[in-house]
Amino acid sequence: VLELDDEAVAAGGERVLDAGFLAEHCSGFDAFAADLRAESWPALAADSGVPWSDIDALARLYARGKAVIATWGMGLTQHKNSVAAIQMLSNLMMMRGNIGKRGAGLCPVRGHSNVQGNRTVGIEEKPSMAFLDRLGEVFGFEPPREHGLDVVETIEHMLHGKVKVFVGLGGNFAMATPDTLRTFEGLRACDLTVHITTKLNRSHLVH
What we know:
Layout: H1 2-10, H2 19-25, H3 29-37, H4 41-48, H5 52-64, E1 69-72, H6 74-77, H7 82-95, E2 105-108, H8 113-116, H9 129-139, H10 151-159, E3 165-169, H11 173-176, H12 180-189, E4 192-196
Parallel strand pairs: 1-2, 3-4
């Protein structure tokens, strides 16, 4: 895309990159662009397993799009290089100003329908005081008021010996986290791991 931008400017045409968006909303672009230009196309094609002709065709298709939505599922979210991949995808969208534009944007799709509404029924490490008040009123008990840990914090606490017991209701905890190998270490550091589920998965075998 950077090469296309140079070609377009040289030919007196419209820039491929959204210079206005980059100037107003982004930082560090010059260093980022220099890093990209230093890459080797043969190496990128070999590492990705995608022919350069396909990469070039997709880049040109994206460059012609006036508004583009980038959508991905759990395959990208749960990949071992997920953070870097999603950061780069976000960078790609920002290069064309496809953030905050009608008909454009970033759209991660969650993998499980029960995840979508779990906050509604209180499955949250930091529930609001209003929710806890209502929960206690409806069910006749005093809910704990201390905040819990999110996923990453839980793994860190496992690794530092501060979480000793893990109880999982469904799901595949280790494979769904941002760093699977570190999560394996955390689960193995626990004194007890319990999995309540209907199907065997990798997380059950790490203890």
